[in-house]
Amino acid sequence: MANLPESVWTGKNVDLSSIRIFGCSAFALNIGDKLDPRAQKCIFIGYPVGVKGYRLWLRSQPGFKVIISRDVYFQRNEMPCLSSSLKNQHSSDIDSIFNKVETDQIDNQQGEESEIEEKTKSR
């Protein structure tokens, strides 16, 4: 741990207890009605920006539904993303999400360029 940049800079050990394994199974606490399930099975996909919690992919929902939850139980030994059935089942969903992200990024870049051109023309 002494070779991490933060520990070298500060001289203190870094707390890595909140770091989780990407793609592992997780159960997000579900506060619902009395007879509803208490947890939802998810896959850990990262950390949200500006929010304390974990980004989780709800596999039980159709499509790609992502939730953010603070109350999560992780199963580090179970990696559902590595199973071939999950890859085949959701490969079209994942491809469509990547295409959507790419087109959104292109649209944002073109929108920013047109805003810059409009600002320079008005001056």
UniProtKB/TrEMBL annotation:
- Its recorded name reads Retrovirus-related Pol polyprotein from transposon TNT 1-94
Superkingdom to which the source organism belongs: Eukaryota
Q: Identify the residues that the record assigns to the Retroviral polymerase SH3-like domain, covering every copy.
A: 24-80
Query: Mind telling me which InterPro entries this protein's record contains?
Result: SH3_retrovirus
Natural source organism: Sesamum radiatum
Pfam families linked:
SH3_retrovirus
